[in-house]
C-alpha cells in the first residue's frame, strides 16, 4: 500500500513525465544513429555492387559475351568465400557463368535491386545467408545478376537493434528508479511537515518543523512556516491576554450586578417589580454563563491534548448523564431510550467528557418536541468507542452541518430557543482534546422533522501499551502546552447551547 501511495504522489508523476520526455529523446537519438549507420552500410554495399557492375559492363563492351564470361570466372576463382555473387544466364535461365547454379525466384519476377536467401535452391552449399543483388538484362537476351553476401551486415543491424532495445529498457528502468527515489525523498520530507502540522493543529503549538540546514526549497518553506507559527502564537498569546483582562475586568462587575439584582428581588414587595427583577437576574445569569463558556472553550482549544486523562468507562459516564437528564425528558413526555455498553473504556478527562455528553443530551431534549423520542447509545465499532445521541427534533440542514461547531452559530429554526450557540463548540473542543471526531447525520432523512444523529468517535483504551511510548507522549504533552488555569466555580458549571 505504501508503494501504491508513493506512485500517486505529484513528485513521482512529475518524475514520470520527465522520464517519458527523456526516454523519447533517447529513442529519437538512437533511432537517428541507427538510421544513419544502417543506411550508410547499405549504401556502401550498393556502391560496391555498382562498381562491380561498371567493371563488368566495360569488359562486355570491349570483349563481348566471351570476355564477360571469362572475367566472371576469374572473379569467382579469386573469391573462394563467395562474398561477391555472380550469375550469367540465358533468357530461359540456363547458367553460363557464376558461383550460383540457379536463378533466384525473386530475380525471375523483377529487374533491379532484390534481396534473397542463399540456400540450396540457388546452388548454395553452405549455411543459409542473406544476399542483396541487382538484376538486369544484357544485349542478346542474356540475364546478369551481380550481388553481395550481406549476412554480416544484417547481423550487425540486428546487434544494433538489440543494443538500442536494451539501451531503451535500461534507460526506462533507471529513470523509473530515479523517479521513485526522488519521489520517496521528497515525500518523506512532506510527510514530516504534514505530521508536525497535524500535531500543531491538535494543540502542540510549541512544535516546529525541522530543517536540514541545506537552505533548499523545503528548508525555506519550513522556516517560513515556523515564522508564521511564531507569529500566530504571539498573536494568540496577545488575544488570550486581552481575554483574561476582559474576564477580570467584566466578570467581577457582572457578578456584582447580578448580586445586586438578586438583593433587589428579595427586597421588593411589588409583584410587577419582582418579575422585572427576576428577569434581570436571569439575563445576568445568561450573560455570565455565555462569558464563562467562551473562556472555557478558548482554554480548551489552547490546551491541546493536555487533559488530565484517566481510564474511565464511557458507558458508566453516559449512564450517569442519562440519569441526570431522564427526568427532564419525562417532563416533556419524551421517550428516552438507552443502549449503553458498560465494557467500552477510553482514556480521558471525566469532567470534560461528562460536560460534552450533557450538552449533547440537553440539546436533544431541547430541540425534540413533546412526545418525541431520544436515543443514547454507547458501543465499540471498528476499533473505536462510539457515543451516539439521536432525536426526532427539527434536525440540521445539510448545508449548515459544517457550521454548527462555530462559536455563537445557531440554525435558523433554533433561534427561538434559549441558548448562546456555544454548546456544540465546546463539544467539538472536548472531542479534539481526546483525538476524536464528530459526525452529524439525519436520523430520518426526507421527513419534515428529520431529527439529528450525533456520533462521537473516540479512541479505545488499549491496556497493552509500551511504557516508553506513554512517557514520551506525556513529555510531549507537557512541553507543547501550558498548564490550564484554575476555573472559578461559575465557569465549571455545565454550558448548554
Automatic annotation (TrEMBL):
<keyword id="KW-0808">Transferase</keyword>
<feature type="transmembrane region" description="Helical">
    <location>
        <begin position="12"/>
        <end position="35"/>
    </location>
</feature>
<dbReference type="InterPro" id="IPR003660">
    <property type="entry name" value="HAMP_dom"/>
</dbReference>
<dbReference type="InterPro" id="IPR050428">
    <property type="entry name" value="TCS_sensor_his_kinase"/>
</dbReference>
<keyword id="KW-0472">Membrane</keyword>
<dbReference type="InterPro" id="IPR004358">
    <property type="entry name" value="Sig_transdc_His_kin-like_C"/>
</dbReference>
<dbReference type="Pfam" id="PF02518">
    <property type="entry name" value="HATPase_c"/>
</dbReference>
<keyword id="KW-0812">Transmembrane</keyword>
<dbReference type="InterPro" id="IPR003594">
    <property type="entry name" value="HATPase_dom"/>
</dbReference>
<keyword id="KW-1133">Transmembrane helix</keyword>
<protein>
    <recommendedName>
        <fullName>histidine kinase</fullName>
        <ecNumber>2.7.13.3</ecNumber>
    </recommendedName>
</protein>
<dbReference type="InterPro" id="IPR036097">
    <property type="entry name" value="HisK_dim/P_sf"/>
</dbReference>
<keyword id="KW-0902">Two-component regulatory system</keyword>
<feature type="domain" description="Histidine kinase">
    <location>
        <begin position="245"/>
        <end position="462"/>
    </location>
</feature>
<dbReference type="Pfam" id="PF00512">
    <property type="entry name" value="HisKA"/>
</dbReference>
<keyword id="KW-0597">Phosphoprotein</keyword>
<dbReference type="Pfam" id="PF00672">
    <property type="entry name" value="HAMP"/>
</dbReference>
<feature type="coiled-coil region">
    <location>
        <begin position="254"/>
        <end position="290"/>
    </location>
</feature>
<feature type="transmembrane region" description="Helical">
    <location>
        <begin position="163"/>
        <end position="182"/>
    </location>
</feature>
<dbReference type="InterPro" id="IPR005467">
    <property type="entry name" value="His_kinase_dom"/>
</dbReference>
<dbReference type="InterPro" id="IPR036890">
    <property type="entry name" value="HATPase_C_sf"/>
</dbReference>
<dbReference type="InterPro" id="IPR003661">
    <property type="entry name" value="HisK_dim/P_dom"/>
</dbReference>
<feature type="domain" description="HAMP">
    <location>
        <begin position="184"/>
        <end position="237"/>
    </location>
</feature>
<dbReference type="GO" id="GO:0016301">
    <property type="term" value="F:kinase activity"/>
</dbReference>
<keyword id="KW-0418">Kinase</keyword>
<feature type="region of interest" description="Disordered">
    <location>
        <begin position="472"/>
        <end position="497"/>
    </location>
</feature>
<keyword id="KW-0175">Coiled coil</keyword>
